[in-house]
């Protein structure tokens, strides 16, 4: 699956692969220590930048003003 920003897609694939490996090989066997946090942070930063670049953050902000979502 593609990411919101095309340049974020390789980071998403790297994180997804790391997470899926951790989940199946460790988490399901009881090891709950998080892994892949550095990959996730790089991907998150890329997504946040893409959201701002595409002005999705402004659309969300406007939608939240129009519709009061519970906090």
From TrEMBL:
Annotated InterPro entries: MDM35_apoptosis (IPR007918)
One Gene Ontology biological process: phospholipid translocation
Organism: Allomyces macrogynus (strain ATCC 38327)
Protein's UniProt name: TP53 regulated inhibitor of apoptosis 1
Disulfide bond keyword on record: yes
Homology family: Belongs to the TRIAP1/MDM35 family.
GO molecular function: phosphatidic acid transfer activity
Keywords: Disulfide bond
GO cellular component: cytosol; mitochondrial intermembrane space; nucleus
Presence of keyword Disulfide bond: yes
């Amino acid at each position: 699956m593609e990411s919101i920003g095309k340049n974020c897609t390789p980071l998403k694939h790297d994180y997804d692969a790391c997470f899926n490996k951790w989940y199946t090989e460790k988490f399901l066997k009881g090891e709950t220590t998080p892994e892949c946090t550095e990959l996730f942070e790089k991907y998150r930063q890329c997504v946040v930048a893409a959201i701002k670049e595409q002005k999705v953050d402004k659309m969300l902000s406007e939608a939240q003003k129009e519709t009061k979502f519970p906090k």
